[in-house]
Design a protein that fits this description.
Elements (H helix, E strand, L loop, with lengths): L12 E9 L2 E9 L8 E9 L5 H5 L4 H6 L10 E8 L9 E4 L10 E4 L4 E3 L13 H11 L9 E5 L3 H12 L4 E6 L4 H7 L4 E4 L5 H8 L5 E6 L4 H8 L2 E9 L12 H6 L3 E4 L9 H9 L12 E3 L3 H9 L11 E3 L1
Parallel strand pairs: 8-9, 8-11, 9-10, 11-12, 12-13, 14-15
Antiparallel strand pairs: 1-2, 3-4, 3-6, 3-15, 4-5, 5-7
Helix pairs in contact: 3-9
C-alpha cells in the first residue's frame, strides 16, 4: 500500500467527523489538516475504529455534555491505522504503515500527527491491514493486566462482552485462568464470548448475575473480576463478584465524575481495587501488534463490520445500540 493523494487535502483541508449535539455527528471536508512538528510524523489514515470511550461524547452524557459542544473536528478518535506521508522524525520513513495514536486525540480525521511513542510499525505485506486496528485496544488491556497480578489457576469474571471485554476474556484464558466467566446483557455477544475463550457465560438480561456466578463457582465467587462497561449497574454487579480479599479491575469509562458504587460492600469484603485508563497504553503498541502478527493471540475476527466513511453516522448509532446491531464488534470506518 502506498500513500494516496487525497482530493480533500488540497489547500490544507481534510475530511473529519465533528460532534454537534447528542447522537448527532456531521462529516466535514474542510477541517484544517494538522502540521507535524519537529519529532512528529503526519499519518494519512486508512482506517479508524470506534471505541466504547467514544459513546459518552457521542451521546452527550454526563461530563461529556459541555465538552461535546466545543469539540474540534476529529475529537476523541484514537484507534488509527495509516501510512506515514510526512516525517520530521528520524527512523520513521514516508510510506511506513503504522498503528498511530493522534497526538491531540483528534483521530476521527483523514490526517493525524503522531510522535514515535504513539506509533507501531505494521508489516507491509499483511493481508488484512484493517484487522490490525485491534492492536490498539489490545495494548490497553495489556497495560491494565500488567498492573493486576497473577491470574494462573484463578477464577475470573468479565462484566461486559463488547470488544474490550472479549479481549480480556481471551487474554485471561491464555494467561492460565482456570475459569473465565463472560457476562453481558446483549445475548448475541455470548457466543462470541465462548469463541474468544470464556469457559462459562451469563446472560444478565435473563438471570441474576450474582446467583449465576455463585452457582458456576460452587459458591466460591471469583478471584478476579474485570468491569468494562462503566455504568453504575454494571459496576455494582462487578463489585459483588469477587470473593473476600479478591480483586476488581475497573476498566469501563464512566460518563459522570460522580456516580453510585457499593463502597461499604467493597470495604467489608476487603476487595483490592485497581482502575486503569490512560495513554500509557502506547508503550504496549508494538508488543500488541507483534502478538497479533505472530499468531500469539487470535483477535482479528472481531474487527467487524468495516463501513465506508460516509456511513459514520450509522456506525455510531450501531455502536451505541449493540442489541440492535448483531455481529457488530470492533466497528471500523474505512477512508
Amino acid at each position: 500500500m502506498h500513500p494516496v493523494a487525497s482530493p480533500f487535502a488540497n489547500g490544507g483541508f481534510m475530511r473529519a467527523i465533528q460532534f454537534v449535539g447528542p447522537r448527532k455527528i456531521v462529516l466535514v471536508d474542510d477541517a484544517p489538516q494538522p502540521q507535524p512538528q519537529e519529532g512528529e510524523v503526519l499519518v494519512q489514515c486508512k482506517y479508524v475504529a470506534l471505541c466504547g470511550t467514544n459513546m459518552g461524547p457521542y451521546l452527550g452524557d454526563g461530563r461529556w455534555a459541555d465538552l461535546q459542544r466545543t469539540s474540534p473536528p476529529g475529537w476523541l478518535g484514537h484507534e488509527n491505522i495509516g501510512l506515514v506521508v510526512e516525517s520530521r522524525c528520524r527512523g520513521w520513513e514516508v510510506g511506513t504503515p503504522v498503528l498511530a495514536h493522534p497526538e491531540d486525540y483528534n483521530g476521527f480525521a483523514e490526517f493525524i500527527r503522531s510522535k514515535p511513542q504513539g506509533l507501531a510499525r505494521l508489516p507491509s505485506d499483511v493481508p488484512d491491514l484493517a484487522a490490525l486496528v485491534v492492536a490498539q485496544p489490545l495494548a490497553t488491556v495489556l497495560r491494565a493486566l500488567a498492573r493486576t497480578g497473577n491470574v494462573i489457576q484463578h477464577r475470573c469474571a468479565v462484566v461486559g462482552q463488547g470488544p474490550m471485554g472479549l479481549i480480556f476474556t481471551h487474554l485471561l484464558g491464555r494467561m492460565g485462568a482456570r475459569q473465565v466467566i463472560g457476562i453481558d446483557t446483549v445475548a448475541w455477544r455470548l457466543p462470541w464470548s465462548r469463541r474468544f475463550g470464556a469457559t462459562d457465560v451469563v446472560d444478565a438480561s435473563k438471570e441474576d448475575t450474582l446467583e449465576a456466578v455463585r452457582r458456576l463457582t460452587g459458591g466460591a465467587m471469583v478471584d478476579f473480576c474485570v468491569e468494562v462497561v462503566g455504568h453504575p449497574d454494571s459496576l455494582d454487579t462487578a463489585a459483588r463478584l469477587p470473593r473476600r480479599y479478591g480483586r476488581l479491575l475497573v476498566f469501563g469509562v464512566p460518563h459522570n465524575d460522580s456516580q453510585p458504587f457499593p463502597w461499604y460492600h467493597t470495604m467489608a469484603n476487603e476487595t483490592e481495587l485497581v482502575a486503569s485508563m490512560g495513554p500509557e497504553c502506547m508503550h504496549y503498541f508494538q508488543t500488541a501488534v507483534d502478538m497479533i502478527v505472530q499468531g500469539r493471540v487470535d483477535l482479528t475476527a472481531m474487527v467487524t463490520p468495516r463501513m465506508p466513511w460516509d456511513q459514520a453516522a450509522e456506525a455510531f448509532e450501531m455502536y451505541a445500540n449493540p442489541a440492535n446491531a448483531p455481529g457488530s464488534l470492533k466497528l471500523t470506518l474505512v477512508f
